[in-house]
Queue: 2 jobs
Job 1
Amino acid sequence: MNFFHYVKDELHCEEVPVREIAEKVGTPFYLYSHATLSRHIQRFRQAFAEVPHLVCFSAKANSNLAVLKVFIANGAGIDIVSGGELFRARKAGCDPQKIVYSGVGKTDREIREALAADILMFNVESEQELEKIDAVAGSMGKKARIAIRVNPDVDPQTHPYISTGMKKAKFGINIKQSLDQYRKAAALPNIEVVGVDCHIGSQLTKLSPFTDAIAKIRELVRALQNEGFAIRYLDLGGGLGITYADETPPDFEEYAKAVIDATRDLGVTLVFEPGRVLVGNAGILVCRVLYTKKGEAKNFVITDAAMNDLARPSLYGSYHGIIAVDKSITETLTADVVGPICESGDFLAQEREIPAFRPGDLVAVTSAGAYGFTMSSNYNSRPRVPEIMVKDQEILTVRQRESLEDLIHGETIPENL
Ligand SMILES: *Cc1c(COP(=O)(O)O)cnc(C)c1O
């Protein structure tokens, strides 16, 4: 459910015509619907209302301060994977007691900053990390709350790059070794074990990988409880998928029912780290057609947005809808939608039947709210595009377009060159 829709032939974000925003801010730009973001977080939390829970939005999906703020204002915390995301979460006003910290490569400095901020817990991904956190906490006279990220070895049936809970993945500690790791953790002086964590992958469109993982993790939670560990949090990560094309992922209520049924008797607070499912369909990338050309083998529609603005198609071969902002274009053509970057991998869609766009037409790339702007770069010295949020018919610039000066920020030409 989202609030991008046509009124007559004109694409609107909530009550505002997308064309009007494009005229105001120029193209390309990311566009987020506030009503969609708040509806998603409210419905997600509502689905778990009957059990103790904490929803920590996964900042890497969309770390814009205003987006984080919408979730924080609706009672959510933040799942971070770097010191940079800790900085963002705090700037957006997140209660540190609602911050969980995941990731396989936390540095000393990042650990220190998270301890100084007094975050809720570290999701620990290796034995060495556990020892490091213990040492850093000891040097600060603090105790670090931790969960171990357990790798349950289940196949999430998603793209290999975003599948994280199988034996061969770099993430977490194998569930078979995890009990031993918990015993080691309990013996460390500056560690307080408070939870169990897992995150098996992203863009999951079935319930079974989640329930398979929970079935394995339940055993561990029980074993830990029997050994006297006070397990307060069961963090089930994120991963719930969205509809990009014709996927039919479980809705929040189906997901919640399956999870609640499988965990109710454990006596823990459930923690979730949803990313994509909260923001993916709350955002689009709007761009303009520069040129069209008929190649010998293919048609091309060349837009002013490129792989540096939205990396997912070239990175994972991902599908994003390509729709007209003015739907009165009735003819179609089959074409590759490409950007100006000097790489053949620079495409937003390939061999796609799309409206017969002409130069100057506005194009909306749909489902671009997750892993869109956050994965963007300055490749080919292209300034990053602005992020716009519509709220109550207002057009809010939540990140301005980068300038040419921004491109060279921090660079110097040494005197002796
Ligand atoms: C990426 C990530 C998430 C969010 O995943 P989504 O599929 O966007 O919900 C949650 N937790 C961890 C540890 C992650 O790395």
Job 2
Amino acid sequence: MTTVDDVSRPSRLAEPDEGITVEELRLAARNHGIPLEALRYDVTPAGLHYLLIHYDIPDLDPATHAVTVGGAVDRPLALDLAALRARPRVTRRVTLECAGNGRALLHPRPVSQPWLVEAVGNAEWTGTPLAPLLREAGIAADAVDVVFTGADHGVERGVEQDYQRALPVADALREEVLLAYEMNGAPLLPQHGAPLRLIVPGWYGMAHVKWLRAIDVRTEAFDGYQNAVAYRLRRDADDPGVPVTRIEPRALVRPPGFPDFMSRTRVLRPGPCTLDGRAWSGHAPVVSVEVTTDGGATWAPARLDDQSGGEFAWRGWRHEWTAEPGRHVLGARATDASGRTQPVEQPWNRGGFANNLVQRVEVVVLPG
Ligand SMILES: Nc1nc2c(c(=O)[nH]1)N[C@H]1C(S)=C(S)[C@@H](COP(=O)(O)O)O[C@H]1N2
Ligand SMILES: [Mo]
């Protein structure tokens, strides 16, 4: 392991046959995914929601914590939790997905948090809308970016920093963006950003800044690490790339039957079997889900559940299948109203972001 890293050196790609390293394992043991059987719940229980934490969980006191609104504003503000709770209260179901979901399945593998497909959750977030607060503070006419700063601190490729991410002003002013203090009807848990976090419906996880302590309006583009260096779609290390923003469409199958302990291969008895799962997109509503039971050779339309969870929540789907003895590879493919769908070739980029390649669920159907 290198102890003194340097941002001028690119992050590492694994060698062609290199297995998961101890460093990746260490990250994976901290940052867990959703157990795929928990796709059954419309609202993901807090303890089953995926988790991604770059540094350490900071220890904040909800009784004294306050968030400031400053920078290019007419009237800087500071609000504690009581002040935020006294403001209009909104609850939204929002599918959160880590931008690195699918990274460990890429060839070559970008070395970082090694997600397979499980970095997703669909919780109910309660808080107060951000836009009215920004308007009360009076943002400058020439404002460009709004920077959100967390109370967590660390170093990444040699750059010491508080976790900070900016949104373009127009995105920060969207009415669905929340300053959230509750998850699933209870105060935020320490690991999910207690006592306050940002929720940016439709965007990949990195935008939803946890342990939020400052909101700064800027008249120049923010060039902090998480915007300018990390979270960009780059072809190679020299490509300036484009920012990672909204969630690409994805469907997941809730693995049927029961698992083999080590291989996680699914074991099923033959006969009729209702396959189900979830589908989401941060660009536009999901309009169709197709299911394959032969590793992608053929596809059949799934039935979609209603969109009662709201426009930012994942959508349930189901499909009737007659399981015949033998080995099968299941998968599902979501398409959204913008026409985006899931690729059949891996969408490779240097950081391993937004890999929404169709999932492969290996099943063995027992003899009758
Ligand atoms: N302050 C802060 N906010 C953060 C992070 C972080 O490390 N620090 N991680 C981000 C990333 S990369 C993701 S995917 C989501 C994960 O949110 P969750 O752990 O509540 O699921 O939080 C985001 N917000
Ligand atoms: Mo993430």
